[in-house]
Write a structure and sequence with these properties.
Nucleotidyltransferase, domain 5; 24% helix; alpha/beta
Length: 95
């Protein structure tokens, strides 16, 4: 069996809204520049502490850090990036 492919150096992170049994939740997900899904997390919040939790979980499963992060306009990603990955350039899509 072949080893799993290595994740790319550019990570795209965003979240989508979904309802589970009528309750609003957020599906956070990260993909690399090749479209490979790196991790997903379903939470009922969309704030800085949740973004940090997602970053920590994502980094725990990787052997290296990304060279670049691209996120949507959610400010919570900037909070997590500045605290956990300050050396990694971050760009919010659309800015």
């Amino acid at each position: 069996m072949a080893p799993p492919p290595e994740a790319g150096c550019t990570w795209h992170l965003d979240e989508v809204f979904l309802r589970i049994n009528g309750v609003l939740h957020y599906l956070w997900h990260a993909v690399d520049q090749h479209g490979m899904v790196l991790d997903i997390l379903v939470q009922d919040r969309r704030n800085g502490s949740t973004a940090k939790r997602f970053f920590k979980r994502l980094l725990a499963g990787m052997k290296y850090k990304p060279r670049r992060l691209i996120t949507d306009g959610l400010k919570s990603y900037g909070v997590a990036q500045r605290e956990l990955l300050p050396e990694v350039p971050h760009r919010a899509a659309g800015t």
